[in-house]
Design brief:
CATH architecture: Up-down Bundle
Largest sheet: none
Structural class: mainly alpha
Number of domains: 1
Strand content: under 5%
CATH class: Mainly Alpha
Mean pLDDT: 92
Low-confidence stretches: none
Shape: elongated
Distance between the termini: 20 Å
Order of helices and strands: HHHH
Number of strands: 0
Radius of gyration: 13 Å
Helix content: over 70%
């Protein structure tokens, strides 16, 4: 599957978030798993849906620093916009 530039940007942003030492290990694990699934899922909408669900769950983690929470929310917004665009293309 060829990744769109927008999706590649999201994947890079997720990788950057995983490299942040202030982000708890359990959150990094969820983000990395979502990133891998997003990159390898043949159906982009399914991959984005899974990533959105996982990121929504970790955004509520009490140990997540505020700057990281904001980054997760930005990722969620970007993924939701990409998913809507992908769904619109299928119609």
């Amino acid at each position: 599957m060829a990744l769109s530039p927008q999706l590649q940007t999201v994947l890079n942003f997720m990788e950057e978030l995983c490299g942040d030492p202030a982000v708890p290990r359990n959150v990094k694990t969820v983000i990395q798993t979502a990133r891998e699934r997003l990159a390898s899922e043949p159906d982009p909408v399914a991959g984005m849906s899974g990533a959105i669900y996982a990121l929504d769950e970790v955004s509520n983690d009490i140990n997540l620093p505020m700057h990281a929470r904001t980054m997760v929310w930005n990722l969620l917004s970007e993924l939701e916009a990409l998913k809507e665009a992908e769904l619109a293309k299928k119609k």
